[in-house]
Amino acid sequence: MDNYKNKLSGCTSLDDLFEIWRNKPAKEITYLSGKKSITKVINHGVDFFISDGIVNQDVWNSGERKRILYVLKEAYGTDWGNKTLVSWLRIDHPRTRIWSRVARLTYGIEHSEKDRIARYKKYLSDSEHASALDQIAILNLKKSGGESTSNNDEIDAYAASDKNEIQKEIDLIDPEIIVCGYTFGSLLTKVLCRVPLTDETRNDNRYYYMEICGKERLVIDYYHPANHYPDFMNYYGLIGIYQQALIRK
């Protein structure tokens, strides 16, 4: 295990991190789901490991766009062939419901500032949609596949078990803005090992400037992009939070 920790701390690229992570020694975990105690073995080498990360490295490294990381719950499916989640987003620029919404939210953040909010667009052009997806990074707390409906207790258990790897992934991605898709509590308490928020420490506007991996980053606590609220409400809700964060910085 010490050898594994040394490899993890010394890796300098996401590809190296995912290779190390995939071969992490199996670990048995026990967690509560409701009132039921569940024990399972996390074995990324046997489970279907879905890597994520930066969609388009050239765009991310250019310094010309806002560096936005979406922290989500899990990817699902097994028919990925030689593709990864980020190569699929980069090559196909999918217009599924979730990724169309992520692209629209990204467009809004990129084109909004503290003195103006970019107007909602129901439909992004092909170039706008592709540009938005090329701009982002994705981090799923659970890498070993999943279901269309997530078990939040299981997500928390995976996040706690893989907290060192997730911290390393955030460090290597190095985002400016982190948008949590109903994952803020998991990120805060299970990955960063910080105390839960209380009524006194919670920001009613759902944004936080936090030191993560040695740098201050803007973290937005928002709904998962698969939520069933209308797109119009999703858009102005998130972009309004972002604008308030810029104003009060």
Give a structural overview:
The chain has 249 residues and is α/β, with parallel strands linked by helices. It has a single domain (48-247), classed as Uracil-DNA Glycosylase, subunit E (3-Layer(aba) Sandwich). Helix content is 41%, strand content 20%. The strands form 2 sheets. A 6-stranded mixed sheet has the order 3-5-4-6-8-7. A two-stranded antiparallel ribbon has the order 1-2. A hairpin with a 2-residue loop joins strand 1 and strand 2. The longest helix is centred in the C-terminal third of the chain and has 17 residues, at 231-247.
Task: List the main descriptive attributes of the protein structure presented here.
249 residues, alpha/beta, Uracil-DNA Glycosylase, subunit E, two-stranded antiparallel sheet, 20% strand, globular
Produce a short descriptive summary.
This protein has a single domain (48-247), classed as Uracil-DNA Glycosylase, subunit E, CATH 3.40.470.10. The protein is 41% helix and 20% strand. It contains ten helices and eight strands.
Sequence of secondary-structure elements:
HHEEEHEHHHEHHEHEEH
* Order of strands, widest sheet: 3-5-4-6-8-7
Measured by DSSP, the beta-strand proportion falls in 15-25%
Counting structural domains, the number is 1
What is the overall shape?
Answer: globular
Number of helices: 10
> What name does CATH use for the topology?
Uracil-DNA Glycosylase, subunit E
In CATH's first tier, which class applies? Alpha Beta
Identify the CATH homologous superfamily.
Uracil-DNA glycosylase-like domain
Overall mean pLDDT stands at: 93
Percent range for helical residues? 40-55%
